[in-house]
Amino acid sequence: xxxxxxxxxxxxxxxxxxxxxxxxxxxxxxxxxxxxxxxxxxxxxxxxxxxxxxxxxxxxxxxxxxxxxxxxxxxxxxxxxxxxxxxxxxxxxxxxxxxxxxxxxxxxxxxxxxxxxxxxxxxxxxxxxxxxxxxxxxxxxxxxxxxxxxxxxxxxxxxxxxxxxxxxxxxxxxxxxxxxxxxxxxxxxxxxxxxxxxxxxxxxxx
Length: 206
Known about the structure:
- By secondary structure, the protein is α/β, with parallel strands linked by helices.
- Helix content is 34%, strand content 14%.
- A 6-stranded mixed beta sheet has the order 2-1-3-6-4-5.
- The two termini are 16 Å apart.
């Protein structure tokens, strides 16, 4: 499939061929959902902790005698039913991560890219560069292009002036090609790929 190459000045810089093996697949929502779940679960800290009855600071003395009170039999006050007692089956530190093979993760990325292409939400940019590194100037260029909510993917190295100018603009994310991922692709309305990023993707998936 062909795509028009755009410049930051809203001009045209020719056309580029996008590989059907990366951008022309029939999107599979189930696979994309699995990948988003994999990413969100993997980044969960899993540091939640509740004290069980062996960890609470209460006396270990039996509350009252076994018989003759007319009440139920009880041991110490660390039992979960008492105020100040331990939590029964409370959360403990653990990893929430789920397994997903490397090939499946790569396939999910291709399906996410194809979903964006099918929706007409992929833009190919000539190059991501800023002459002066000024946020205001770059914001004006984005407004002219109607980029209000976009993820910009560049090559292996980001241009420092462009990254600096874009970092304070709301709803604009800039990543090198190594950082491309399904979650960030889906959370932004448009995906902007530089020609260097397209070449890197084709090299990665060939």
